[in-house]
Design a protein that fits this description.
It contains three helices and no strands. With 54 residues, it is mostly helical. The longest helix has 12 residues. It is elongated and about 45 Å long.
């Protein structure tokens, strides 16, 4: 139902995707290093605050 009505993706092999979705194998993924993110957390928070004014 979620695939048919709301165009959600399913990872179940027997569920057929709708035609307008890009195949998962063709999507580029972002990779994040948790240690690097942790090390930059204060800089990230400051940038977020600057951008969104919070």
């Amino acid at each position: 139902m979620l695939v048919e009505m709301f165009a959600h993706r399913s990872f179940h092999a027997q569920v057929k995707e709708k035609g307008e979705h890009i195949p998962l194998a063709n999507l580029k993924l972002l990779k994040a290093d948790p240690a690097a993110v942790q090390a930059q957390s204060e800089e990230i928070k400051a940038r977020y605050a600057r951008i969104f004014g919070v």
